[in-house]
Amino acid sequence: MTDDKLKGLRTKIDKLDRDILELISDRARCAQEVARVKQNEDAAAVFYRPEREAQVLRRVMDRNDGPLDDEEMARLFREIMSACLALEEPVRVAFLGPEGTFTQQAAMKHFGHSAVSVPMAAIDEVFREVTAGAVRYGVVPVENSTEGVISHTLDSFMDSSLKICGEVVLRIHQHLLVSENTRRDHITRIYSHAQSLAQCRKWLDAHWPMAERVAVSSNAEAAKRIKGEWNSAAIAGDMAADIYGLEKISEKIEDQPDNSTRFLIIGHQDVPSSGADKTSIVVSMRNQPGALHSILEVFHVHDVDLTRVETRPSRSGIWNYVFFIDFEGHTDDPVIQKVLEKLGSRVNDLRVLGSYPKGVL
Fold first, then answer.
1. What are 216's strand-pairing partners?
2. Which of 66, 127, 187, 266 is the least buried, fewest Cβ under 10 Å from its Cβ?
3. Do residues 223 and 236 lie in contact, with contact meaning Cβ atoms separated by under 8 Å?
């Protein structure tokens, strides 16, 4: 009786697999036809539409009844969309490398594994590659929920005309990794990025108080280093462990269980409204009494939700400051247009960095 039931279920699964295969192939053919239509209308057509993909993924999650959770279902659809987009035009994406960083993981989460990802050694190099047109988009970290803002990314916007086209919020899980050469009872040095060491400070104090903590350029660099040392370990994520063939001897060692990092997608295009968007701006003004209040009052009066405000020294003169501000809404919204108009009359300079779909965990 059990064998008959299993045989019936497997027959049903085989039929479902054939149906899924046919539907994915139909979707891929539609993507190819979209490419032909766009190219006939405009030889320089843009194939990747951030707002369109955000809308599709939101619908997938809204309609999902399980048993797979929303994030897993969205990941599956992201890969289908990525493969279909690659038939139209493979997307080239620069990220803060080397391979195995959380930034690469964020790039894969946003663009899927069919995108061509190109590692860069520094954040300003990611900006430079996108500006030069060597890649279509770049992915850079901007803030961590535990350690705060990444100043280098904000400063890079001051010298760049690039736009923010999207954001990715990535749950960050840190692991203590060793190589096949590591003598686990003689670990005296632990490598990682400075932010990751800070995110695991309490755990390290409790479990490895005598080990030297060495900050390197990235978690992936830490993973690479321990391959040639017998007395060291690294703190890094799943991707670095897989790429460099390392073993996790302690998992999820971050001090805050909800530790997450926000990444920005940078490019040249303006992104239309997706229906659930954020806008980022940078404004500059002299450091004088009431300066910040004058800015924030505009958002309060129009009931616009601020999600982040950061201050950075201006490069235009001593005691001048710039404010990086993120808020809910899109520049196509009439209320946001009023906010920007009123702000423009109160500050020395205002630049819209971009309106883009909100990222989700």
1. 193
2. 66
3. yes
Q: pTM for the full model?
A: 0.89
Q: Of the candidates 230, 258, 286, which is a domain's last residue? A: 258
Residue with tokens 């139209």: 88
> Which pair of structure tokens corresponds to residue 127?
């900006």
Closest CA to 82 of 31, 17, 26, 14: 31
**Range(s) of the domain holding residue 28:** 2-171
Q: What's the structural domain count of the chain?
A: 3
Tell the burial category of 291 from Cβ atoms under 10 Å away from its Cβ (0-12, 13-18, 19+).
Answer: middle
Q: What is the pLDDT of residues 18-50, one digit of tens each?
A: 999 999 999 999 988 988 888 888 767 778 889
Distance of CA 73 to the CA centre of its chain: 18
| Tens-place pLDDT, residues 109-159 | 999 999 999 999 999 999 999 999 999 999 999 998 878 888 889 989 988
- 303: enclosing H helix or E strand: none
20 exposed, middle or buried (CB, 10 Å; 0-12, 13-18, 19+)? exposed
Residues 243 and 104 in one domain: no
H-helix or E-strand spanning residue 226: none
Q: Please indicate, yes or no, whether residues 319 and 250 belong to a single structural domain of this protein.
A: no
Q: Which percentage of the chain shows pLDDT scores above 70? A: 98
CATH number of the domain encompassing residue 222: 3.40.190.10
Least confident stretch, 50-54, 80-84, 223-227, 289-293: 289-293
The residue with greater pLDDT, 32 or 190, is 190
The owner of tokens 């369109």 is 52
285 and 241 co-located in one domain = no
Tell me: do 53 and 18 sit in the same domain: yes
**CA distance linking residue 168 with residue 25, whole number of Å:** 28
Question: What span, in angstroms and rounded, lies between the C-alpha atoms of 209 and 27?
Answer: 54
* Tokens representing residue 222 in the block: 């830490």
**154 & 250 share domain:** no
Do 147 and 221 share a structural domain? no
